[in-house]
Design a protein that fits this description.
The chain is mainly beta. The chain has no helices and 17 strands. 36% of the residues are buried.
Length: 256
Amino acid sequence: AFDGNLYVTTKPAPWVPAPNRPYFMRSTDGGNSWSNWQYLDATGFLVGNLIAAPMATSAVAADGNLHILYPSYVPSQNLLPGYLLASSSDGGATFQYKEAWFSLINGNDSLIKAGYQLLTDPSDANHIAFVTPQNLLGDQDIYYLESTDAGLNWAAPVRVNDDATANGVTQDLVWGGFDNDGDLVLTWRDRRNASGAGYSVDSEIWGSVLWKDSTSFSSNFRVSDTLAAWNAILTQAGNDFMCSQMVNDTLFATWG
């Protein structure tokens, strides 16, 4: 029913004063016209004043429902920081809100590319997931969280990178995608083979697959064939990028 709808989510610029709220716009005619922008969060499900430039990540499920994930830290809503899910079954006209994941976390390295991504499974409209770098065990790791009931309930986060825990190795720059029959691939920037710890060391691109009929991710594998030397330009914004997609069991990946 909503074939041809287009949805755009944007975050406020980092210099916008609090409260910082993500924006949403939609087109119901293939982009010929657009709705006025609106705030995505809502009373009781606000981002709050403590998160600068909150990013909202969106995906459309196989049944046409729109799902959007965004961060929140409002102690009167939840004592913990976490993520909220806004879902729409009427093409973005109205939204229903749910809590996705809230947890105590350690401080993230300010240099990492900490973008998170919402994913929908083309083979199962109720299967949605998101991936995020988080510091839960002493350093930055890649985590996967999924819901099998369209966001009503969420499983505990799964650590995807399989190097030793709390070893100072930093993983970030995660991206992933489902193929048509429900297999999932994730790729990220990994530093397990570098000398030293933290962000500012050499890196590779690694990956892992969660097959549709499996309950756990595969052993990690190298995607890149070279240990890329760290360069100071990577401390600046906009100088690294990761994208991957699996099509009929073939992984396609690009990074910069």
